[in-house]
Amino acid sequence: MTQQAFLFDMDGVIIDSEPLHFAVDIETVRALGAEIDQHGLEPYVGMTNPEMWKRLRAQFGFEPSIAEIIELQMNRKLEALAASGLTAMDGIAELIDALLAAGVRIGVASSSPRVFIEAVLGQFGLLDKFGCIVSGEEVPMGKPAPDVYREAARQLGVSPDACVVLEDSRNGVRAAKAAGMRAIGLRNPNSGQQDLSEADWIVGSIADIPLAELGLGLAQP
C-alpha cells in the first residue's frame, strides 16, 4: 500500500490564532504610522510574513526594512501568544491520534515563521507528534505557491498525490492543489471571508471531516 500523509496548516487549523495575528498586525502597522483593519489584512491570510510585509511596505511607504518590521511584529506576537491562553482547536488532538494510529504520516506546513510554529506546538504538547515541520519562509516561494507542501511531502517520503491537506485559507487551498494534493477547506469565521471553493471538501469543524472518504484507512467515529 502506498504510504499516505496528512498535512496540517497551523494558524486557524491547529490553533484559532487568526484573531491574534490580525490584532498584532494592526498594532504593528499602527506603530509604523499607518492604519489598516482586519478586512485589509484578510487577503494576506496564508502568506508568509516577508511577502505580506513586502506588499504592505510598498502600500504604505514604511521606512524600516522588512526584516526590522518582522522583528517588531514577531516580538509582539510571541508575547501575545504566551499571554493569550489559547488552546488547540476542538478535535485536533483526536484527529492527530487517529491518523498516527492508522499509520498515516503527518506534518505541519505553515506560512508562519518556524519560531512561532514551534512556540505554538510546544505550548500544546504537539511538537513531537509531527514527522516534519516546514515554514513557508524556508522554501523559495510561500503559499499560494506549492513549495511548502511539496517540501513537506519530500521530508515525509510521500508522493504529493498521496497527501491530504487541512487548510483554512484561499491561499493555502491553492497551494495544496498546486502541489497535486487533495485539500480540505475548514471554514473558520475567525480567518475572515476565505474563498475555499477550490477544496475537495469543505467542512465547518474538525468533527465534520469525512474521514472515511479520505482514503487514509480511517473510519468515522
UniProtKB/TrEMBL annotation:
Similarity annotation: Belongs to the HAD-like hydrolase superfamily. CbbY/CbbZ/Gph/YieH family.
InterPro entries to which the protein is assigned, alphabetical: Beta-PGM-like, HAD-like_sf, HAD-SF_hydro_IA, HAD_sf, PGP-like_dom2
Keywords (A to Z) from UniProt: Carbohydrate metabolism, Hydrolase, Magnesium, Metal-binding
Species name: Paenibacillus pasadenensis
Names of required cofactors: Mg(2+)
SUPFAM superfamilies attached to this UniProt entry: HAD-like
GO MF annotation list: hydrolase activity; metal ion binding
Protein name: Hydrolase, haloacid dehalogenase-like family
Transmembrane annotation, as ranges: none
Top-level taxonomic group: Bacteria
CDD domains assigned to the protein according to its UniProt record, in alphabetical order: HAD_BPGM-like
NCBIfam families: HAD-SF-IA-v1, HAD-SF-IA-v3
